[in-house]
Amino acid sequence: MLQQILKDMYIEPELLAELSDEQKQILFFKMREEQVRRWKEWNVKVEKQKIISGKKNGRNVNFKLDIGGNPWVWVMGEHKDDKSIEQILEEESLEVARKEAHKEAELKRLKEIEERKRIDEEERKKQKELKEEREKIAREKAALEEKARKIKEEEDRRKREEERRRREEEEVERQRKAKEEKERKERERVKQLEQKRQELRLKREKEEQDKQRHEKEQEALLKKLEEERLQKEKQAKEIKEQERQLQLQIEREKKENKQRDAKYEIEEKERTQEIFSTLQKKRRESKLEAEKNRDRIEQIWNVQLRKSKVADQDRSSWAQFARDTVRRSRISRDFEHFNVSDMMNHTRDRGPKPKNRMEAIDWYRDVELPKKAGFDLITNRPDTWMHGPMSRIEVESLLINKDEGTYLVRLSERIWGYTLSVKNKERTKHFLIDASLAGYQFFGTDQIIHRKLKDLVEYHTVSRLFLLLAHSVTPNP
């Protein structure tokens, strides 16, 4: 399992959560050693490629050297004409603020231009309507004048016709008088003339009535035309007054636009200064935050450095313990369960970890059950501390009210092996037991390999070297 993690340089977050703090430290240092080893190999390979490529084309990179023979380096701010980083940042902030304020003012100005265009378009339409109204009034006035002229001509013609009729009547009257003189001679002719005179009288009365009615109609029409003329003149005056007011309004708007543009320029300058002040404030806050983060990172690094030194000491003690274990194995000459090739062949047909719970159960049934892992060989039943697959939450809820030192072993779904869960004062700790090799050991390096799972549990129960195991939890039937 450890070889696979070092090969991929990656560990699943769930698997990492299962590790204890000591196991995490061991894994961290092993991965760091692997990174250093790979970097050294890569560095040697790059140096060889540089030598080969330099021999092929003969090209080299020559750095400019200073008086002491070292590569010449220019540091910004050392020259008397160089600007300080504060000045550069201040200029950049001022430029950003100016651009932002100019952009806002430009957008506002464009909106005002669009509004003025809309108002001008409405005024043009209004002026066009007024012009059409004036032309219409002029046409109507000309029509009224033409109509008045025709009425006057009709009146003159009527007067001429009346004069002609008067002369005819006078002639008729004269003829009547002549006929009256002849009436005495001719009664029949007098009677006819009287009848004609009567007809003429009736006709004259009718014409008089028609004349009076026509005169009244003409007077009413002339009065109406005069009123319409006065009304049109009044409308024309109102239109001229509206044009004058419109012109005054346009001049006022031009004046207001000039004042508004001046106001916008002032607002743009104020906005520029405001944005510049905001950027300066943010830069100062970022600088303070960077200083705080630098101090915090330095503290974290010091803590990690102290932890790494402690881990180095632990590794040295564990290495000494491993050497002592190997020395005892040599003395007893019991190496059959520590064969490395057997350990590698044992995990060749499986993946680095179970894919799901069923695969872990199948692995236990096919590999561990034949070896009676977790079984009491006397009763041929599972040991009291042996449990099946359980989640971390289920285990912690089971051990929450138990005494300190209560433990259980459950089938792990993260690795090919088990998880030993122990209740202590603060919380429940979980330790991975790797069974992917030919024995059982806690996850990590420099760990003691046990031939049986029960041996590992009994070893730590008796020696209390690493754990405090008091009594186990019996699984529910």
Structure description:
With 477 residues, the protein is of the alpha/beta class. The chain has nine helices and eight strands. The chain has helices at 2-8, 13-18, 21-57, 85-183, 187-332, 340-346, 357-368, 392-399, 453-463, and strands at residues 375-376, 381-382, 386-389, 406-411, 417-423, 428-434, 441-442, 471-472. Strands 3, 4, 5, 6, 7 and 8 form a six-stranded mixed β-sheet that branches. A two-stranded antiparallel ribbon has the order 1-2. Helix 4 packs antiparallel against helix 5. The longest helix has 146 residues, at 187-332.
Task: Give structural attributes.
477 residues; 7% strand; 6-stranded mixed β-sheet; alpha/beta
> Number of helix segments?
9
* Number of E-state strands: 8
* Global outline: elongated
**Overall pLDDT level:** 80
* Class from helix and strand fractions: alpha/beta
Low-pLDDT segments: 337-348, 464-468
Instruction: Specify the helix fraction band.
Output: 55-70%
Give the terminus-to-terminus CA distance.
Answer: 32 Å
Largest sheet, described in full?
Answer: 6 strands, mixed
Quaternary structure type: single chain
Strand content: 5-15%
SSE string, helices as H and strands as E? HHHHHHHEEEHEEEEHE
Radius of gyration: 60 Å
Provide a short characterization of the protein structure.
With 477 residues, this protein is of the alpha/beta class. It has helices at residues 2-8, 13-18, 21-57, 85-183, 187-332, 340-346, 357-368, 392-399, 453-463, and strands at 375-376, 381-382, 386-389, 406-411, 417-423, 428-434, 441-442, 471-472.
